[in-house]
Amino acid sequence: MEKKLLLEQFNKDFAAMQRGMMMQFDKLPLPVYVLRVEADASGLPQDFIFVYANSACASFLGIDGKNYLLGMSFSDIWGDNGAKWLNIYTKTALEGLTKNIEDYNENLKKYLSVDCYQPMYGYCGCFMRDVTQRRDMERQLYEEKERYRVAMESSIDLLFEYDIRLQVMHSWSNIASENSQEKTRRSYIPDYLSVVIKENLVDPSDREAWLGLLRGERSEEALEIRMRRYIDEQIDNKWYLVQATTVYEQGLPVRVVGTMRDIDAWKRMQQEKQLVESLNYEINHVLGDIYYAVVHFDLDAGTYHFVELTGQKCVDYPYNGTCEEFLAYTRDVVPREDWHKFRQRFNLREMRRVLTKTGDKLEMELRRKNGGVYKWISLMVSYLPDYSGSKKQQAVLVARFIDDERRREMEQQQELKAALVAAHTANEAKSAFLSQMSHDIRTPMNAIIGMTTIARQNIENKVKTLDCLNKIGSSSAHLLELINSILSMSKIESGKVILTDDELSLPQLLEDVLNIIRPMAGKKMQNLRLELEELKHAEVLTDSTHLKQILLNVLGNAVKYTPEGGEIVLGLQELSAVIPQRSQYVFTVSDNGPGLSEELLPKIFDMFERGEDSRTSKIEGTGLGLAICKNLTNLMAGTIEAANRPEAANRPEGGAKFTLTLPLRWLGDDAVKPLPAVKPAGRSDFSGHRVLIVEDNDLNMEIALEFLQSLGLVCEGAENGRRAVEMFNASAPGHYEMILMDVRMPVMNGYEATREIRRLAREDARQIPIVAMTADAFSSDIKMALNAGMNEHLSKPVSIERLQEVLGQWL
């Protein structure tokens, strides 16, 4: 009775459950069904019976009507492959486990996914979905992934993902291990942008492109970069091909995902290929610049073809043909006489005969028409080895224009001829110079030696001896003038003359010059006067030494060539100049002497040129004075001219006139200064004065002592500069009133001795006059003496008149 009541209650409950399921699931499009466990005789589950199925389930299983399923077993529907499903259903119905099963059904030919739950004990409720399409897509996706994986593993070296916001780089790379198997290595680099710069991970020239890609600025763009990678503690610095894409969220780039492939070997191969191509191009271009044509000859076949060169100029031949045609084409562009020689040398038979081994060649130079003009070309045909093993006889011809070379050779030949003529002329001039010097030097030397002999023979005859000594003095003076002129000319021509800017008064300079010349003019009773026009600027800057030398030379000639009682005029005039603060100063020297011959005038300033007039042939001269004047004037940017003075009623004898024009810079608008008074004649008595003579040459010391003692001076001598310093330092202040100092001496020279004396700690060391008495007579030597601290300069040989002048100035 109790069992029956329980069964009735269960039926009521199941009926209520079934009604509830029907209300909930009948309208669902999703297949839903409920199974009840069916036990065997032993009470073990052996099958399941459909107790509910909605319309969607019946339709999915291909059954007409849902009620048809009720009472059917699961095995009737699923067949023999339902064991897996039955196991899941049993666990759900009896144990209350919620399960999901997904499997392929052979009967339905579909993938099914079933979610199982327990509505009540012994029952299993199921929700079924057709996942065939999803599983097919997953399978396809899996296959694609596998294909992608295989492709990527075989073609890329690294996968990377860069987080733009966090600046973090993730990468995965396949690295070969020691057992030759590949393993995947993952890396994580925070603050990646800073690391790139700090560690110099990317070549500087590629860095900006790489950073732009990581910022999302170069999406979908392939990039070739040089990158450093650290693999197993080794630096891998190679070329990589980067392909990346940018991931966006809400329109902003957030990640960059990409791959890297090692293209280093390919890149280097490309670079080497480009280098070779570039080198070949450059070589080809150079050959094209050197040779206007390169021709290959197949001597076995008797054919030719032009080798194409970059910049090749030869376009008037067909680029291939027979050797006979090549000769025929050449005939149109080569002169007839050259073509016959060309045909004899470069015909096919001759080339086959001569060009048989490496080193054999044929050469020729001929003229070729180019742009309507014949130009010289050089041809060379050389044997060309055949490295293919066919033993083919072949040759290559190269042709280049040598017209410029020919012209340069002709110019060089002309230059060599001109140089030869110049050298011959120079040798002749040298010979003429030596001959002239030999004559001019031997003439006064003959007089000196001859008069010395005569004086010795008449030593008792005082009048005769004095006459000989006077003539020896005159000849010695002439010889000294000659030597000084030669040295001056040599220094000018060698470019060693240095011009200085000295502040001077032109009227004073002219008076100094006249004072020097007056004794010479006085001996011939000549009237020497100065014509000085009003000068607006009397104070100027110029080289006073060389200006004085020019004026003295010209005035000296005027005195020599003007007869006794004649007139010599030195004039000066100031003219305006274009250059500011400068004027043109015109110095003139005119006389009423015999004048200049028409033959002499054009060459008056050449070396060794002197008039051959009988009236002047006996006058001594070097023939160098006016040449020196001309060269010095040129150095001072001036001009000097010579002319004959026109005859006048008050001066019928004519005469010569020399005009020196110099552009000089003046110091200011000075009033015309009166001429300084003429200096009185030099003193001849210096008794009571003491001088120190510093001279290393005994003979020169003897001459100096004789001269000075004859003027009443007390003299002491020192043989070198060191001894002079010691004697002066040991003397009482004021003991010596002047020092006459040679320059070139052993132990210590005159410049060093002067500086030592000036540095001594005594008052008279800075005040005592020190006069250079040396054979160094150039203006640069005078300047060096003054810079060393000397007060005056005397050139050897020293005349007693000049010595008196210096003594009178400083004592």
Short key terms for the protein model shown above:
811 residues, alpha+beta, 7-stranded mixed beta sheet, 22 helices, 29 strands
Could you walk me through the main structural features you see in this protein, from its secondary elements to its overall organization?
The relative contact order is 0.04. Helix 13 runs parallel beside helix 16 (625-635) and helix 18 (721-730) packs parallel to helix 19 (750-758). The strands form 5 sheets. Strands 18, 19, 20, 21, 22, 23 and 24 form a 7-stranded mixed beta sheet that branches. The protein has a 6-stranded antiparallel beta sheet with strand order 8-7-6-11-10-9, sandwiched between helices. Strands 14-13-12-17-16-15 form a 6-stranded antiparallel beta sheet, with helices on both faces. The protein starts with a helix and ends with a helix. 42% of the residues lie in helices and 27% in strands. The longest helix has 55 residues, at 403-457. It is an alpha+beta fold and 811 residues long. It has 22 helices and 29 strands.
